[in-house]
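User: quick one, fold this
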Amino acid sequence: MQTQIEKKSLLDTLIEVTPIFLNLFPFDCNISITDTECFLANYSKGEFRLDQQKGKKIPENSRLWKVIETGEIQKYILPKEVYGVPFKSISVPVKDETGKVIGCIALGMSLKNQERLEQAIKTLSGTSEEVVASAEELAASARELSKCMEIVDSMKKEMEEQINKTEEILNFIKNIAMNSNILGINAAIEAARAGKEGLGFNIIADEIRKMSRSSADSVKNIEKITEEIKQKMSKISNEIQKTFELAKNQAFTSEEITAAIEELNKLITDLESISKIV
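Assistant:
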């Protein structure tokens, strides 16, 4: 008789205080209390409700049945297909002073918010992976651009060398034109001294001087064009340098973005672990 009173008293006490403890949980949950055969009480908070009516028999081989049979705590997670909402359950045996199992108390916690959190984490993780991929692609493009600019800069230097060689050739032609002009003048003097006999020689002297003047004019035109090319090459060189610096900065920024996203991924992993603790 004493044992029967203690059993009822302990289970009745749990039934009385459970509604109070239910309000301590900041999420949707359900608390069920049983004896060794059937449900004695069932309390729900929020949208999460289980069909555990008072007097309903405990299904054989169920989790609660195993708690009563083994006297051990049972923890498990049920998918939303079972009750419409995914939830985590902890079932604890209730024992009397002798250690005999007289019932069970089970807490079912809705994992709806955790499911939303995990979905948000997956979305954030996918987005961060896309950002990382884009940043890495951008960095690769920047590095490739930097290499191309190095090649262009090398070609620019080669062109400058060719222009300098062109100037050397022009100076050589200029000297030839000058010497040819002098030669033409000397030939004209000698033709004048020769009189009629030097008439043909005088014609040749005139042609030499014409060729000298034409060569000198051509050299001036080429020098003008060369100078314009050098000025444009100087502008191109400045733009190449700007682009080269921009490419380097772009690659550096992309690497910084990638590093920041990697840190974010670590936080996502931590957050995912935390979401599974509840």
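User: anything notable?
Assistant: The first strand starts at residue 29 and ends at 34.
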